[in-house]
Design brief:
Distance between the termini: 57 Å
CATH topology of the largest domain: Aspartate Aminotransferase, domain 2
Strand order of the largest sheet: 1-7-6-5-4-2-3
Shape: globular
CATH class of the largest domain: Alpha Beta
CATH superfamily of the largest domain: Type I PLP-dependent aspartate aminotransferase-like (Major domain)
CATH architecture of the largest domain: 3-Layer(aba) Sandwich
C-alpha cells in the first residue's frame, strides 16, 4: 500500500528522484482510470471477497486496506510523498499538528519515565509536557534549549524521550540538533523534533541525528489556510511497532479529503518556501532598520544579529517565513501596530500565502503562567509575523505605516 506508482506500474527512477520531483510525484498511485491528479477515496471502509479474506486482512496475513481509521489510499499517498521528501522510512498522518505531537510523544512513554524538553515551546506542546504527562506518572524536565550544559545535566540520567522545537515558537531559538541527539541517545532517549517552522524544505532533522519528526501540515504544507493535518515521520520500526498501534486504537485519523488537499500543497511547497524566505528576509531587514524608532528588537534566523546565526546557517537552508519583533510600549504598543495594519491580517495561523500577525502573549501562549512566558522570552510587546507571498514592498509599506501611527 503506497508506492511511487505513476501509471499502472512503479517508476524505476523513483528512488533517485530529487526533492522537487518527489514533491510533485512521490507516492502517486493511479487507479484503472489513469487519472492525472491523485484520486480522492472518500470511504470509511472496504469490502472483502470472502469471510476468509476479511479474517486474513485483520490477522495480518494479508496486507490491504481494512478501515480508514487505520489506513486510506489518499492518506497513504500523502504519507508516502512526505516521507520521500523528508528522507524518512515511513510516515503516518494525523488529524492535526497537535494530534501528531501528542501521539509521537505518548506512544513511547509510560509511568515512571522521564521526558526532557526545551523550555521554548508552543503553548499546547508545553501543556502536554508539563500538565498532561505528570497525570500519568511521567516526569517532565525543561531546559533552556540553546544551553548545551543544561542539556548535558538533564540527560546525565536515563530518559525515555526528548522533545524540541527548532526554530522555536515564537522566539525563534535555534537548537543544536546533532549535539542534543547525541546526548539523548546516550541517555537512552529518542529525539523528537517539531520541524514546522523550518519545513522539510529548509531543515532535515533525521539527517542531523533526530529519531522522529513531527509537523503541523496545517501550516506551510497546506499553505493556504484550507484544512488541518499533521504528520509523524521516523524509521519503519518506530512507525509500525510503536506509533502504529497507538494511532490504530486512539483514532486521530486524517480525513481523505484533507490528505488530498495536503498532497496538492506539497506540489508547490518548494516554490512557496523560496518566496516566503525571500520576503521574510526583506521584511526583517526593514524592521531591523526601525530598532530605536518604535522597535526594541527583531528576531529572524537569517539576520546576522540572531544569537544562533552560525548554527542556523549550518542546520537550515534559509531563515524561514517567520519574523518576530518587539515594539516599545508593551501590549498597548503591540496592539497599536497590529490594529494599524491594512494588508497583513491578524490571525494565529502561520505558513499561509497571506501574511498573518499575532500577539503570542495573549493568543498562542495565553494560558502559560506569566513566569513561564517570562522564562521563554515571550514579552507583552512581542509580535509574531508570518510573512506570506505578497510583494515584499507592499508588506514593508504596510508595516511602515502601522509603526508610524
Amino acid at each position: 500500500m503506497g508506492s511511487d506508482n505513476t501509471s499502472n506500474g512503479t517508476s524505476p527512477n523513483a528512488k533517485t528522484w530529487r526533492p522537487q520531483t518527489r514533491m510533485v510525484r512521490g507516492g502517486l498511485e493511479r487507479t484503472g482510470f489513469s487519472e492525472t491528479s491523485e484520486a480522492l477515496f472518500l470511504t470509511s471502509g472496504y469490502v472483502y471477497g470472502s469471510a476468509e479474506e476479511a479474517q486474513e486482512s485483520f490477522d495480518g496475513t494479508r496486507e490491504r486496506y481494512v478501515y480508514s481509521r487505520f489506513r486510506n489510499p489518499t492518506v497513504a499517498m500523502f504519507e508516502d510523498r512526505l516521507a520521500g521528501i523528508e528522507g524518512a522510512e515511513a510516515c503516518r498522518a494525523t488529524a492535526s499538528g497537535m494530534a501528531a505531537v501528542h501521539a509521537a510523544l505518548l506512544c513511547q512513554v509510560k509511568a515512571g519515565d522521564r521526558v526532557v524538553a526545551s523550555r521554548a515551546l508552543f503553548g499546547s506542546c508545553s501543556w502536554i509536557i508539563t500538565e498532561l504527562m505528570p497525570r500519568y506518572g511521567i516526569t517532565p524536565v525543561l531546559v533552556e534549549g540553546t544551553d548545551l550544559d543544561q542539556w548535558r545535566e538533564a540527560l546525565s540520567q536515563p530518559t525515555a524521550c526528548v522533545f524540541i522545537e527548532t526554530p522555536s515558537n515564537p522566539t525563534l531559538e535555534i537548537i543544536d540538533i546533532p549535539a542534543v541527539a547525541e546526548l539523548a541517545h546516550k541517555a537512552g532517549a529518542r529525539l523528537v523534533v517539531d520541524n514546522v517552522f523550518a519545513t522539510p524544505v529548509l531543515q532535515s532533522p533525521l539527517a542531523l541525528g533526530a529519531d522522529v519528526v513531527v509537523y503541523s501540515a496545517t501550516k506551510h504544507i497546506d499553505g493556504q489556510g484550507r484544512c488541518l493535518g499533521g504528520a509523524i515521520l521516523s524509521d519503519a520500526a518506530f512507525i509500525n511497532d510503536v506509533l502504529g498501534p497507538y494511532l490504530r486504537h486512539t483514532g486521530p485519523a486524517l480525513s481523505p479529503f484533507n490528505a488530498w488537499v495536503l498532497l496538492k500543497g506539497l506540489e508547490t511547497l518548494d516554490l512557496r518556501i523560496e518566496r516566503h524566505c525571500a520576503n521574510a528576509l526583506k521584511v526583517a531587514h526593514f524592521l531591523e532598520s526601525r530598532i530605536g524608532k518604535g522597535l526594541k528588537r527583531v528576531i529572524y534566523p537569517g539576520l546576522d544579529s540572531h544569537p544562533q546565526r552560525a548554527l542556523a546557517s549550518r542546520q537550515m537552508r534559509a531563515g524561514g517565513s517567520i519574523v518576530v519583533f518587539e515594539v516599545e510600549g508593551g501590549r498597548e504598543g503591540a496592539y497599536r501596530v497590529m490594529n494599524g495594519l491594512r494588508l497583513v491580517d491578524i490571525s494565529n495561523n502561520l505558513g499561509d500565502a497571506k501574511s498573518l500577525i499575532t500577539h503570542p502573549s495573549t493568543t498562542t501562549h495565553q494560558r502559560l503562567p506569566a513566569e513561564e512566558k517570562m522564562a521563554m522570552g515571550v514579552t507583552e510587546g512581542m509580535i509574531r509575523l508570518s510573512v506570506g507571498l505578497e510583494d515584499a514592498q507592499d508588506l514593508i509599506e504596510d508595516l511602515e505605516a502601522a509603526l508610524s501611527v
